[in-house]
């Protein structure tokens, strides 16, 4: 009987392993993320990604242990603008996504049309995420 209890406890504990999403990070540690295309986004996140915002806007959406982060820079008068993720780190109990806006060079030949620069990334975590401009 005692042997069965030990076996059951062992099975229970082995089933309770820690997933990557629940992993604890060290302060200042870089967090792995992946840029995703529109086609790789879940349907409800894709709807947020497709919007063309005239103002800066960010979204964070949690689904199945994955945090999706969408950053819209807002409307730009020409092409040549881009959003770049510069760093993703663990700070003070949350994950911080740092981004910067890349502007076209003054002498660059760019599209003369309104553009809406944006990016989407995914992070395998359930930890809260904050977005900051670098």
Automatic annotation (TrEMBL):
Protein name: PrcB C-terminal domain-containing protein
Pfam families: PrcB_C
Organism of provenance: Anoxybacillus flavithermus AK1
Domain PrcB C-terminal: 67-124
Highest taxon of source: Bacteria
PROSITE patterns on file: PROKAR_LIPOPROTEIN
Stretch forming the signal peptide: 1-21
The keyword DNA-binding appears for this protein: no
Keywords from the named record: Signal
Transmembrane segments: none
């Amino acid at each position: 009987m005692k042997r069965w209890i030990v076996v059951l406890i062992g099975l229970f504990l082995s089933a309770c392993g820690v997933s990557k999403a629940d992993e604890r990070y060290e302060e200042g540690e870089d967090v792995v993320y992946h840029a995703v295309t529109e086609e790789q986004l879940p349907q409800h996140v894709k709807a947020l990604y497709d919007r063309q915002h005239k103002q800066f806007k960010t979204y964070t959406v949690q689904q199945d242990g994955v945090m999706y982060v969408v950053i819209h820079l807002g409307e730009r008068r020409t092409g040549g603008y881009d959003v770049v993720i510069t760093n993703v780190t663990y700070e003070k109990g949350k994950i911080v996504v740092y981004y910067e806006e890349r502007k076209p060079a003054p002498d660059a030949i760019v599209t003369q049309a309104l553009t809406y620069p944006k990016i989407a990334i995914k992070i395998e975590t359930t930890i809260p995420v904050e977005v900051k401009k670098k």
